[in-house]
Specification:
Blueprint (H helix, E strand, L loop, with lengths): L1 E2 L3 E2 L7 H4 L18 H4 L8 H28 L6 H34 L2
Antiparallel strand pairs: 1-2
Helix pairs in contact: 3-4
């Protein structure tokens, strides 16, 4: 399946243990030889821990909050230099990232409580 704006849609295997070792084929059964392997994509060379993903997400959320503070301060000190729509959009992004972080934290705490009570 090809879309002009997306190029060719492809599936990349990241770990053979997760997806099996057989060759991929299309619906008609013809092998798909043009799919790059994980080694060709650079996937699997450096594995990141769950902690690093969480820290990156928290840094991103913090950056959104700092961005809102800067835009709000700039809007108060020099209202002509910033558009009110940009401030509103930044506030919405920050609120959404904070809500997402709160949901993740709640899920982690709930999961930890379930694990600790099943022992």
């Amino acid at each position: 399946m090809k879309f002009a704006e997306f190029g060719q849609l492809q599936m990349t295997r990241t770990n053979a243990a997760h997806t099996g070792v057989s060759k991929l084929s299309d619906i008609a059964g013809a092998p798909l030889n043009n799919i790059p392997s994980a080694a060709e994509n650079g996937i699997g060379k450096t594995s990141k821990s769950f902690q690093s993903y969480l820290l990156e997400a928290m840094d991103s959320m913090n950056q959104e909050q700092v961005n809102v503070s800067k835009l709000s301060e700039q809007m108060i000190t020099d209202p002509d230099s910033v558009d009110i729509h940009d401030v509103t959009i930044a506030m919405s992004k920050a609120r959404m990232s904070l809500n997402l972080a709160q949901s993740v934290i709640d899920r982690l705490v709930t999961g930890w409580n379930e694990i600790s009570t099943t022992r």
